[in-house]
Amino acid sequence: MNVALCVLLFAAAYGQQDADSVSTADSSRSATVATAVIIETNVEGARVFWDGDSVGVTPLTINVEPGRHFVRIIPPDVQNWLSDIVEDSIEVEPQTHRSLTYNLNPKVLLLSTPSGAQVLAGDSVIGVTPLVVSTSRPSVRLKLQGFEEDSLEIANTDQRIISTHLKKTWNEDAEDISLNASDERRSPLRIYMAGAATLIAGSAAAYFKVKADNTYSDYQQTGDPGMLSKTDRLDAAAGIALAATQLSLGLFTYFILTE
């Protein structure tokens, strides 16, 4: 009788221990139940890395353990240097569902000829060309003084480099200013040229005159008719050089007085 009672008590205690073990195991399993996370991007096919491991491409649903995790989204056109990689840190609660949506807005490089044009989004200046901008903006405008304004559509474009040639505007006042500036730049040059011509022509006149005098002296000593003919040619050259000197000197004086 005593033996039977001991067996019954042992069986009851063992059964209770097993029940407690099962309860503890169930509780532990419920605490570590994976959470479903849905990851989407506005551009399908983006590669998803979860805690450093590649888990697939968007749109994607994965089951993860609760806690803090790190997600990295790489655009499909990762070879394009204008693509941005998205990184995020999220906290996952147990027995919940998370939905994550990321915008991968491609970028384009804006070029203009000439460069340095202001780039406007609405009424705000966002930079000057060359400029990298996000295609989240539907369009931008390019403005540069002296050139017509240009509008560029950049939303949903497949191009990564958009280049435009700005058209020059004709301005009568600006044209007059340009001509006056050109005249002012030429004024010092004509003075220098007239002065140089005066010096060169004067030196030539003196040279030919000295040569003519020396040749005439030789003619007087030798009576050679050839020397007389050479003297006449040198005198003629000296006269021409002297006339050029006077003309250049007159122009030089005129330019100085009218400057």
Could you walk me through the main structural features you see in this protein, from its secondary elements to its overall organization?
The chain is of the alpha+beta class and 259 residues long. It folds into three domains: 69 residues, Immunoglobulins (Immunoglobulin-like), CATH 2.60.40; 59 residues, no CATH class; 87 residues. Helix content is 44%, strand content 29%. It contains three helices and 14 strands. The strands form four sheets. A four-stranded antiparallel β-sheet has the order 3-2-5-6, with no helix packed on it. Strands 10-9-12-13 form a four-stranded antiparallel β-sheet, with no helix packed on it. Helix 2 runs antiparallel to helix 3. The longest helix is centred in the C-terminal third of the chain and has 51 residues. It is rod-shaped and about 130 Å long. The N terminus is likely disordered.
Summarize the topology:
Blueprint: H1 2-31, E1 35-41, E2 47-50, E3 53-57, E4 60-64, E5 67-74, E6 86-92, E7 97-102, E8 107-113, E9 118-121, E10 124-128, E11 131-134, E12 139-143, E13 150-153, E14 161-165, H2 172-222, H3 225-258
Parallel strand pairs: 1-7, 8-14
Antiparallel strand pairs: 1-4, 2-3, 2-5, 5-6, 8-11, 9-10, 9-12, 12-13
Helix pairs in contact: 2-3
- Put simply, the count of helices is 3
Low-confidence stretches: 1-14, 21-31
What is the number of independent domains? 3
Topology as H/E string? Answer: HEEEEEEEEEEEEEEHH
In what range is the share of β-strand residues?
25-35%
List the strand order in the largest sheet.
3-2-5-6
The tally of strands reads 14
Determine the structural class based on helices, strands and strand pairing.
alpha+beta
**Biggest sheet descriptor:** 4 strands, antiparallel
Approximate helicity band: 40-55%
End-to-end distance: 141 Å
